[in-house]
Amino acid sequence: MIEKALIKRTSKSYWAWVLFLIALIAVGFAAYLYQMTQGFTVTGMSRDISWGMYIGHLTFFVGVAAGGVMIVLPYYLHNVKEFGRITVVGEFLAIPAVIMALLFVVVDIGSPMKLFNVYIYATPHSMLFWDSVVLPCYLLLNLVVGYSVLQAENKGLHYKKWVKALALVSIPFAFSIHIVTAFLYSGLPSRHYFLTAMLPAKFLASAFATGPSLIILICFLLKKLCGFDAGWNAIKKLSVIIAYAYTATIFMVGCEFFTAFYSNVPSHKAALQYLFFGLHGHNQFVPFMIVFVICVVFALFLLIPRQNRENPVKLGFACALVFLSMYIEKGLTFIIGGLSETPFGEIASYHMTAVEFLIIVGIFAIGILIATILFKLVVVVKKDRDPGAYVPEDRAGLALKLTTEKGMFVDTVARDKDREDEDE
Amino acid sequence: MEKMSRRKFLKLGTLCAAGVSAAAIGASSVASAATTATTGTYQKNVKRLKGTAMGMVIDMREIDSEKIAELQKVCHAFHNVPNVPNEKDEVKWIWAEKYVNLFAGETTERLAEKFADKDFVALCNHCESPVCVRVCPTKATFTNDQGIVLMDMHRCIGCRNCMAACPYGARSFNFVNPRDYLDEVNYAYPTRMKGVVEKCNFCAERVAVGQLPLCVEAAGGAISFGDLNDPESKVSKLIAENFTLQRKINLGTKPKVYYII
Predict the structure, then answer these.
(1) Is the domain covering B54-260 a CATH 3.30.70.20 domain?
(2) Nearest-CB residue to B134 (from A51, A115, A125)
(3) What backbone torsions phi and psi does residue B101 show, to the nearest 5 degrees?
(4) Which of B8, B76, B88, B132 has the least C-beta neighbours within 10 A?
(5) CB-based burial, A289-327: b 16+ in 10 Å, e otherwise
(6) Which of B95-99, B100-104, B112-116 is predicted least confidently?
(7) How far apart are CA A272 and CA A337, in angstroms?
C-alpha cells in the first residue's frame, strides 16, 4: 500500500517538496555531527541551564502526539461517527510527532552510543525510563492501528477486531506519554516552576488543544492541496474540544500566576517573573511571552463565541494561534523558565545557538516528511475507496479561500458509509 | 490445520522455556559449587574506613577563600577534573560559593557583611535520599553501602536529568572533551570523555584503602569526615557540640555535609 504514497500519483511539486525536506534533514544532520564532534559546548546549554530547546521540543511534540487521541477516543469509545473519516489522520499525526519527540531526546543525549543502557539497566524509579517505554509503545500502536485501518479500507474491507482492541489500548497510552513527561519535571524537588501537581493536568489540557488544532489545520491543507474533505461536522466537533481544552489550559496558567504572586513566595515567582517581565536584568523571553499573551487573547475570542468558532476563516486563525501560543509556552519557554533560577538563587540565561537551531529544523523536516508521506497515503486511499470524501476538482481550488459560506464545506459524512459496523 | 500448528508451536515453546530454565538451574548449581570450592580467595577489605553514612563537617571559621582554592587545586588535580576556561562549560567538584548563594532562600534578610560575602566550600552533599539517584534512567549514579553517591562514567548516557534534579548544583556535564583541558594527567585516576556527567565522589577510592578524602587532608583539621551513624565518630561529636547548618533540608534529601558557621 505504501507504494501509493511513494511512487504512484506523484507530481513534480511533490518531489520538489520531498527534496527540499531531505535537504533540510541533511543540513540538520550535518549540524548534529558537528555537535557530536565538538561536544555540547556548541549549544546554548550550560552547567545551570542543563536542559534547553531540545527537551522543550520533546515536551511539546509529546503533547501533539497525545492530542491525536481527541479524535480516536470519541470515535472508539463514544461512537462519534463524524470522526470516522479522520481517525486515521489523528493516528498518523501521532507517528511523526512521537518520532520527533524521540529524536529530540536522542540529540539531547550526551553519549548517544550508550543510549540503550536505558533498556539494558531498566530503572523503574526513573521517570525518564518510563518515558522511553511508553513513547515507543505509543508509536508502535499508532503505526499498527493506523496502517491496518487504512489497509483494510484500501482492500475494501472492514478492519479486524484486534485492530479496534489495539486502538482502545492506544487511548490510555496517549494519556500516559504526556503524564510521564510531566512527571519528569513535576517530581523535581527544587524546581518550583515544575514542582506542581497541576503540571500533568495542564500538559494534557494543552495537548488536547494543540493536537486537534494541528489536525484542523492539516484538514484545511489537505482540502486545499488534494481536495480531501474531512467533513464540516467533524471539524465543528473538534473545534468545541479545542475551545474547552484551550480555556482549561489558560485557566491553569492563570492559577499558577495566582499561587505564585498571591503567596508571594520568591522562588515560586522567579520563573514567571523571568519569563514574562524579566528578572535581575535577564529578559530575553519577554517578547515571546508578549506574543503568547496576544495569541491567547485573540484565540479565546475566536474560540469561545459559537459564531466565531463556526466560521472556517476564524477557526483557521484560532487554530494557528492556539498552536503558536502553546508552542511558545510549552516548547520554547517552559524548560528554560523552570531551570532559570539556579540552586544558588541566581538567574542564569540561555541563548539558543545556530547549531541547535539547525538540528531542530532538521528534526522538523523529518517529521514533516513522514507526515507528508503518511497523509498522501491517506488521501490516495480515500480517493479510491471513499469518493464521498473528495471535493470535485473545480471546487478544490476554491476550498481554502475559506469563505464564510457554509455550503462550501460539503457535509459528506451523512452520505458516507459508516466505517463502524460493529453491531453486525 | 492452522489451529493444530499453533497449538504445536505453543507446546514446543513451553518445552523450550522449561528446557532453558532447567539448564540455567543446572548451570547455577555448578557455579555455586565452584564458589564453595574456592572460598577464601576473596578477603574482606580491612583497610577500608568503616561507616554506613559517611558525612562531612566543615568548620567555616577556619577556612578562607585561599584555602578553598587550595582544596580545589588538590582535588581537581588528583581526579583529572578539567580546567575549562569557558564558565558555561566548567566542570567542578569542589568550589567556592558565597554564603548568600550557598544558602539561597535560607539566609536572614539583613546580614553582617562578613558572612554575606564570605566564600563557603561547596561540594556534593551525598544525600541520604538523593534525587539524582532517583531520576537517573540507567543507575549510572548510585549510593554505595557507605552512603556515598557515586557515578559510573561508563554507564552514564549524558541525559542530564540528574543536573536538573540536584538541588545543590553539584553536578557538571562534560560539554567539551575534558582530556583537552588537563594540564597534567594523573594516571592513578581515570579521565573522562565528553558527554557524561561527573561530580565529587567523597574520594571513595581513598576511603577504600583507609585514607581520608583529599580535601579533608588538605584542610588541616578544618574539615572532618566520618560515619554520621556512629555517635563516637569525630563528625558526630562535632555536630553534637557545635551549631551547624545543612543546605536545603526542607527538600527531604537529607544532605550529609554540615557547616559550622
Answers:
(1) yes
(2) A125
(3) -85, -40
(4) B8
(5) beebeebbebbbebbeeeebbbbbebbbbbbbbbbbbbb
(6) B112-116
(7) 7
**For the segment A183-229, what is each residue's pLDDT rounded down to a tens digit?**
999 999 999 999 999 999 999 999 999 999 999 999 999 888 888 88
Q: Distance between CA atoms of A109 and A42, rounded to whole angstroms?
A: 14
Question: Cα A106 vs. chain centroid, distance in angstroms?
Answer: 18
> What pLDDT digit, counting tens, does each position of B107-136 carry?
888 888 888 889 999 999 999 999 999 999
Residues 92-111, chain B: which have Cβ within 8 Å of A? 97, 100-102, 104-105
Topology of domain A16-384 in CATH is Formate dehydrogenase/DMSO reductase fold (1.20.1630)
Element holding A369 (H helix, E strand):
helix A354-385
Q: How far apart are CA B84 and CA B52, in angstroms?
A: 35
Identity of the amino acid at A161: K
Q: Which residues of chain B lie closer than 8 angstroms to A132, CB-CB?
A: 137
Residue B193 touches chain A, beta carbons under 8 Å: yes
Question: pLDDT tens-digit profile of A282-335?
Answer: 889 999 999 999 999 999 999 999 999 988 899 999 999 999 999 999 999 999
Beta bridge partners of A347: A341
Q: What is the arithmetic mean of pLDDT over A44-54?
A: 94
A121: chain B residues, CB-CB within 8 Å = 138-140, 155
